[in-house]
Amino acid sequence: MHVTIYDSQQALELDHKKVERLAKTFLEWKNILPQEVILHFVDKNRICTLHAKYFSDPSPTDCITFPIDSPTAKPCIVLGEVFICPQVAIETAEKLEEDPYRECALYIVHGLLHLLGHEDETEAGRKTMRLEESTALEYLSKEDCLLQE
User: Tens digits of per-residue pLDDT, 10-39?
Assistant: First the structure.
């Protein structure tokens, strides 16, 4: 599995090897083995532009996903693309008195869960998504895969 990383933001210095390890470990844990997944780390202006274009909402958001191949496809060539805004992670982490790297790891997991078919548009979907996120972060923490400084 190849994790392609594009990092065009400057707000949070990211160790791309740690990002790759987190994504691979998560997907292997979920038993999803695409040939590729693509992660874009973008600035606030870019995430707002994408949010406006694809969701008619120009406000900043944590991540936006674009599924490509079904996770159950045989073979799954490209699972999809996730656009993540580390600046939003920094701002949210400040408000919650959390670590911005942990918040960014949460956004990666959240985006990957969307690529796996999870939704958070309904109350039931949000509840399932939060449970999946917390379980994943606990697992990734035990595997030493979170994005600590």
Answer: 999 999 999 999 999 999 999 999 999 999
**What SS3 class is residue 60?**
coil
2-142 CATH, one of 3.40.390.30, 3.40.50.150, 3.40.50.720, 3.40.50.2300: 3.40.390.30
Q: Which residues contact 118 (CB under 8 A, 6 or more apart)?
A: 125, 128, 129, 132
* Radius of gyration of the chain, Cα coordinates, nearest whole angstrom: 14
pLDDT computed for residue 149 by the predictor:
58
Helix (H) or strand (E) holding 54: helix 44-55
Question: 59: how many CB neighbours lie within 10 A of its CB?
Answer: 9
Q: Identify the DSSP state of 121.
A: S
**pLDDT per residue as tens digits for the range 101-149:** 999 999 999 999 999 999 998 999 999 999 999 999 999 999 998 887 5
- DSSP β-ladder status, 36-41 and 63-67: unpaired
pTM of the predicted protein model: 0.96
